[in-house]
Amino acid sequence: MRRKASLILLAFAVFFTAMSPLMRWYAFPRLAKIPPSQYQNVVLEAKNPTLLDYGTMQAKKVSKVSIVQTLKGDVEKAKRISDSAGRDVVVWDALSYVVGPDGKMVSKIPERYIFDAHSSEPVHATGEMVDGDPVRRDGIEFKWPFLTEKRDYEYFDAQARITRPIHYKGTTTFRGIKVYYFEQTIPWMKVPLPRTMPVPGITPESVAKTGTTRWYTTTRKFWVEPTTGAPVYGEEIMENELRGGTLLGGRDKVTVFKGHVKMREDSIQATVDLVSSNRVLVLLLTSYLPWGFLGLGVLLLALSLWLEARSRRPGDPEGTAVPHPEPVSA
């Protein structure tokens, strides 16, 4: 009976030991994925920034500017691209909606970001765009890969439509969570005007006819939770200018926006809560279950060997030959 139980425990030991690497290297890449229906809304604010008044074409200080960033997954589009690409793909329709202190729209820039559901690598497909312009992303945007590494990544800048390195600067703690800090600086460069302008009748085409161009620079900072690859906090020190042309009335340049943009407190808390819960799910596949299965397999193996040893009994001792007396002759 003990021998039978020993064999059963040995079989379970082999099973759980084999499951340990399978959970990490087979199940994790197939189960840890961004859902195609993901929806997220984040609000950022710039306190006391400089903002252009398009009515007077004068830059002035205002109390605040709010930026509402919305990410919404397009499930049907993702399914079609996934079927053609042969891998799970996520399609995010993003919108950056900028609002002035009076609640009026300053600008809005839509994006369509298509990427691999597990690796976060961009997937090039029809419909990838920024503000209606077709683009080809060669780097990540919005999210880092699962199990983010301590290294530089290529990051796409939607304003300039370019990809540049975003540098790993160190490890720190944010709201009790270990995070990697990344930073990217985009130097001054000419960028397209938004298609939707805050003043009716003014279009990028009408501004272009005056010879006036838009220039932009930014330093963006992200604090990324490495297990999920999700930023828990972000900031940007951003500046936009209009330069040259007849629109400026003889001036060389005028500031469109200049400010330090930070995530609002309610968005920070919601993001931290979401990332904390998702982190546990990823750790189940990469750490808790693999190590747990390995430990359970070793324990069952030890128990199996112990029962096997107990089931063995020493054999009966061999009989000792008794010599017979030889007959004695009288």
Structure write-up:
The chain is an alpha+beta fold. It folds into two domains: 1-31 and 280-311; 32-263. The protein is 28% helix and 38% strand. It has four helices and 14 strands. The chain has helices spanning 2-31, 75-85, 204-209, 265-311; strands at 39-47, 50-53, 58-61, 64-73, 89-99, 105-116, 129-130, 133-134, 153-157, 162-174, 177-191, 213-225, 230-243, 253-263. Strands 1, 2, 3, 4, 5, 6, 7, 8, 9, 10, 11, 12, 13 and 14 form a 14-stranded antiparallel β-sheet that branches. A hairpin with a 5-residue loop joins strand 5 (89-99) and strand 6 (105-116). Helix 1 runs antiparallel to helix 4 (265-311). It starts with a helix and ends in a 19-residue tail after the last helix. The model has no long low-confidence stretch (mean pLDDT 91). It comes from Streptomyces xanthii. InterPro entries: PorA.
β-strand number: 14
- Unreliable stretches: none
Helical content class: 25-40%
State the helix count: 4
Number of domains: 2
Tell me the radius of gyration: 32 Å
Order of helices and strands: HEEEEHEEEEEEEHEEEH
Overall mean pLDDT: 91
Oligomeric state of the chains in view: single chain
How would you sum up the global shape? elongated
